């Protein structure tokens, strides 16, 4: 029986090369579009947030574009799409520079005029946690600014938090209706004046003398961008999300600072991520200490299961800040470990600088 000879065909090198080129071109185009989309989105933040404010709910998910960039970078290197590699590299450098992610941590410089400030939302509800009290007794800073403090003995309106008198003899407590945000200012320096300690004030103001020089400290706790009744599902949260009240409080604070004649520090829980356009408005008037002398993302929430979210979830949003006027400089700013609150503290080392 005759058997027809089998003809073996060799792969066409031209066809294989064309396929490789098509994949390389497609990868390059995808990388370019991705980089352009991310960069345009960054510059259009004010417009996007104003048209659709709930986008702020997703502003802490910055790691998603980062993950996408890493995947595309791997593919671009695999297919040798060098133009795509360059585009992604430029995007990464621009983002790192803009968010100061490339900035290395600085060592605190101790001088005779240096002092430190720490801010933390302690989420106390009815009483400050014992772990937080114990940590504060170690004197982690010269001035401590607490939000949602509701100190022990809240209903009795104590003049001081007795367990912290030894570490911080100067104390000013704002009493508010339970469920709102009472601020507490603790200081090793003399407090000369107070302002804004009315129950509904979003900030309190004290005048201190530090090394015989007066300085103003604003302790800030701004409204959350949600209704009083928090929903569990994402769709309801999107419908409830409203930054109007918080933005009005920021405008009130900035207007008050325009008439401030003394050097000042403004710190606390702003309930605002640093991707929010309101951040740019504040940064135009004063300096962000963490961006000046810190390193990394500076995220402070959620810090524990106390937030109602899973414990394995890392901090995603930067809600807590320390700002300052031009007469002051920070030599080191950091986000220390948590002490049981759903917010991480922020600590800054200050000194006077020549203006």
What do you see in this structure?
There is one protein chain. By secondary structure, the protein is of the alpha+beta class. The chain has two domains: 14-98; 115-352, 4-Layer Sandwich (Deoxyribonuclease I, Chain A). It is 32% helix and 19% strand. It has nine helices and twelve strands. A six-stranded mixed sheet has the order 3-4-2-1-12-11. A six-stranded mixed sheet has the order 5-6-7-8-10-9. The longest helix has 31 residues, at 13-43. It starts with 12 loop residues before the first helix and ends with a strand.
Features:
6-stranded mixed beta sheet; 19% strand; Deoxyribonuclease I, Chain A; alpha+beta; 9 helices; 2 domains; 355 residues
User: What is the terminal separation in angstroms?
Assistant: 102 Å
Helix content: 25-40%
Number of helices: 9
**What percent strand?**
15-25%
What would you call the shape? elongated
| Strand count | 12
Report the radius of gyration as a whole number of Å: 26 Å
Query: Structural class of the helix and strand makeup?
Result: alpha+beta
Strand order of the largest sheet: 3-4-2-1-12-11
Largest sheet: 6 strands, mixed
Mean pLDDT rating: 85
Write the CATH homologous superfamily of the largest domain. Answer: Endonuclease/exonuclease/phosphatase
List the uncertain runs.
none
Number of domains as seen in the coordinates: 2
CATH architecture label name of the largest domain: 4-Layer Sandwich
CATH class of the largest domain: Alpha Beta
CATH topology of the largest domain: Deoxyribonuclease I, Chain A
């Amino acid at each position: 029986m005759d058997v027809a000879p089998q003809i073996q065909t060799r792969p066409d090198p031209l066809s294989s090369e064309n396929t490789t080129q098509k994949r390389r071109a497609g990868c390059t185009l995808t990388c370019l579009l991705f980089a352009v989309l991310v960069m345009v989105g960054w510059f259009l933040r004010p417009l996007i947030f104003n048209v659709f404010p709930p986008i702020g709910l997703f502003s802490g998910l910055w790691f998603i574009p980062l993950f996408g960039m890493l995947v595309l970078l791997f593919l671009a290197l695999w297919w040798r799409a060098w133009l795509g590699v360059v585009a992604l590299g430029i995007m990464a450098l621009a983002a790192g520079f803009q968010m100061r992610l490339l900035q290395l941590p600085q060592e605190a410089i101790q001088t005779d005029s240096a002092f430190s400030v720490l801010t933390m939302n302690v989420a106390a509800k009815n009483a400050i946690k014992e772990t937080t009290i114990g940590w504060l007794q170690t004197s982690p800073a010269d001035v401590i600014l607490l939000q949602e403090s509701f100190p022990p003995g809240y209903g009795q309106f104590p003049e001081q938090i007795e367990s912290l008198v030894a570490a911080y003899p100067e104390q000013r407590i704002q009493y508010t209706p339970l469920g709102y945000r009472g601020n507490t200012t603790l200081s090793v320096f003399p407090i000369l004046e107070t302002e804004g300690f009315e129950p509904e004030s979003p900030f309190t103001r004290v005048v201190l003398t530090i090394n015989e020089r007066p300085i103003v400290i604003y302790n800030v706790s701004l409204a959350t961008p949600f209704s009083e009744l928090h929903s569990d599902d994402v769709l309801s949260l999107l419908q409830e999300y409203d930054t109007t009240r918080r933005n009005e409080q920021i405008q009130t604070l900035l207007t008050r600072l325009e008439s401030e004649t003394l050097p000042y520090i403004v710190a606390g829980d702003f309930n605002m991520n640093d991707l929010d356009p309101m951040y740019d408005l504040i940064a135009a008037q004063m300096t962000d200490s963490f961006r000046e002398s810190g390193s990394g993302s500076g995220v402070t929430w959620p810090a524990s299961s106390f937030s109602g979210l899973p414990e394995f979830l890392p901090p995603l949003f930067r809600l807590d800040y320390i700002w300052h006027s031009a007469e002051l400089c920070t030599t080191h700013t950091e986000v220390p470990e948590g002490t049981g609150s759903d917010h991480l503290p922020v600590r800054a080392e200050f000194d006077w600088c020549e203006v």
